Amino acid sequence: MAFFTYIVASGKNGTIYTGSTDDVVKRTAEHRDKTYKGFTAKYGVDRLVWFETHDTREAAFRRERQIKKWNRIWKLELIEKANPDWRDLYDEVRLGDLKDPVDWEPPEED
Fold this sequence. Notes:
Layout: E1 3-9, E2 16-21, H1 24-33, H2 39-43, E3 47-54, H3 57-69, H4 72-82, H5 90-95
Antiparallel strand pairs: 1-2, 1-3
């Protein structure tokens, strides 16, 4: 099982939030749907702009805590290095090699 540290943003150079999870697709969907009425819902922080994978929940949580202690410029540099255009990575992560959700077809039944 994989664990993730991630950053969601309101837009390029906008408000950012760092978190950790065992399901980055589900957690990003929760941010997008404003499932929890906290910081990210209040400030419209719902675009997945950076993430990394860890082998353990503890490692993902430690990395989250490390990044949360950083100053804003370091966080922006981390995002810019991996995702200079601040693309929303949600569909890429959710769909994998399928680039456009309209191309999805349900599996054939036996």
